[in-house]
Amino acid sequence: MTDPTSPTPAVGPEPGGANRIRVAAASPYDVVIGNNLLGELPGLLGDDVRRVAVIHPRALRTSGDAIRDDLVAGGYTAHAIEIPDAEEAKSAEVLAYCWSVLGQAGFTRSDAIVSIGGGTTTDLAGFVAATWLRGVKVVHIPTTLLGMVDAAVGGKTGINTAEGKNLVGAFWEPAGVLCDLAALETLPRNDYVSGLAEVVKCGFIADPVILELVEADPEGASSPAYKHTEELIARAIQVKADTVGADLREKTTSVGGQIGREALNYGHTLGHAIERVERYKWRHGAAISIGMVFVAELARAAGKLDDATADRHRAVLESLGLPVKYRADAWPHLQDAMKLDKKTRADRLRFVILDALAKPTILEAPDPSLLIAAYAEIS
Ligand SMILES: NC(=O)c1ccc[n+]([C@@H]2O[C@H](COP(=O)([O-])OP(=O)(O)OC[C@H]3O[C@@H](n4cnc5c(N)ncnc54)[C@H](O)[C@@H]3O)[C@@H](O)[C@H]2O)c1
Ligand SMILES: O=C(O)C(=O)C[C@@H](O)[C@H](O)[C@H](O)COP(=O)(O)O
Ligand SMILES: [Zn+2]
């Protein structure tokens, strides 16, 4: 049963069927969820923009070319910039390649970037936009579930280095985000399910109705054809929009027991460490799934979280086919990688944990015995 009092998307579907969620920022912008949204692109680019770079991964060459052709037909000069698929795109080399294309094409401050792809594309393209001439306009068109509910929203952009995940980047908000649901139909199931990890995260940290909708039919929820897909997407985006709107630059570490944007990092301390140990070959959502089970066990071991909520993590993530365990022998490497987590202060590790369902908080410098006990539960 869904709880009618829990947060629902602030703005309902428009007559044309699209759902629009506003993100509060210095320049507020909308995340639009629907079908056939490309008609919105010129309005988001604005009247000044003449030249556009469409950044897309190899797998979406046809879509990237189609957007470029559309823009050209609309009177823009448009270039398609192809980048590698998945995490290979988030590198200094690919960033430098994009800069050189923009330089050769004569991109000025009145020109813009359009990204079309998953979270790796929006992270890279957002960082290109943040850094080219110290900042040009960007519009994201996320094509994965994860990109729609998380990566394209909120303005975190960046790349990975050998030392860790997203260690180099910038906050750079888009002018708008267009989530065309038809894109999800071509997404491999594994990638769709990886995105569900971030949806489930939003359920645990803020909106438990998400968990109920997944638990009602995990097999159904694992496909974009699920009758509640659009509601799941809208609810997760609403959690992200509300959270970043209240703490855009992740400055609030705790006010009256409430934490700010760091809540969205639930499961990410260990998750990012797993990604590094796996040399960025894993999907982000898979690593975050294990990371969430780990922090649930950590919160339980610290006497903060009740058994039922802790157990619910493993149950819901496993029911979706997401991984919930990791190799026991990897612990020393994971500990090493976690030292460079962005929440770490000096040598004090900080974990987002739950005090209760939808009550995220920070656990500072937990005793090593608690970390070992929690890791033993997932290895
Ligand atoms: N900036 C943020 O706030 C934020 C939030 C969450 C995650 N992230 C980042 O997002 C990245 C993960 O994003 P992801 O899970 O979308 O992975 P991804 O971008 O690697 O996409 C997964 C794969 O699907 C392909 N693909 C994309 N759309 C497709 C489609 N419609 N049909 C068929 N194939 C398609 C891609 O080319 C890629 O091979 C990670 O690097 C993570 O750190 C960032
Ligand atoms: O938007 C945020 O804030 C998040 O933490 C969302 C995460 O899901 C996302 O993976 C983000 O890129 C992690 O940020 P980082 O600062 O830990 O690199
Ligand atoms: Zn994430």
UniProtKB/TrEMBL annotation:
Does the keyword Nucleotide-binding feature in the UniProt annotation?
yes
Q: Which residues form the 3-dehydroquinate synthase C-terminal domain?
A: 195-344
Keyword Zinc assigned: yes
Matching entries from Pfam families are given as: DHQ_synthase, DHQS_C
Q: Where is the 3-dehydroquinate synthase N-terminal domain?
A: 81-192
Q: Which cofactor does it need?
A: NAD(+); Co(2+); Zn(2+)
Keywords from UniProt, A to Z, are: Amino-acid biosynthesis, Aromatic amino acid biosynthesis, Cobalt, Cytoplasm, Lyase, Metal-binding, NAD, Nucleotide-binding, Zinc
From the UniProt record, give the pathway where this protein acts: Metabolic intermediate biosynthesis; chorismate biosynthesis; chorismate from D-erythrose 4-phosphate and phosphoenolpyruvate: step 2/7
Q: According to its UniProt record, where is this protein located? A: Cytoplasm
Q: How is the cofactor bound?
A: Binds 1 divalent metal cation per subunit. Can use either Co(2+) or Zn(2+).
The EC number(s) attached to this protein equal 4.2.3.4
Question: Which InterPro entries does the record match to this protein?
Answer: Dehydroquinate_synthase, DHQ_synth_AroB, DHQ_synth_fam, DHQS/DOIS_N, DHQS_C
Its UniProt entry gives the catalysed reaction(s) as:
7-phospho-2-dehydro-3-deoxy-D-arabino-heptonate = 3-dehydroquinate + phosphate
Q: Where does NAD(+) bind?
A: D85, A86, E87, E88, A89, K90, T143, T144, K156, K165
**What domain of life is recorded for the organism?**
Bacteria
Q: Where does Zn(2+) bind?
A: E198, H268, H284
Q: Which family does it belong to?
A: Belongs to the sugar phosphate cyclases superfamily. Dehydroquinate synthase family.
Function summary: Catalyzes the conversion of 3-deoxy-D-arabino-heptulosonate 7-phosphate (DAHP) to dehydroquinate (DHQ).
Q: Which PANTHER family match?
A: 3-DEHYDROQUINATE SYNTHASE, 3-DEHYDROQUINATE SYNTHASE, CHLOROPLASTIC
Question: What protein does this entry describe?
Answer: 3-dehydroquinate synthase
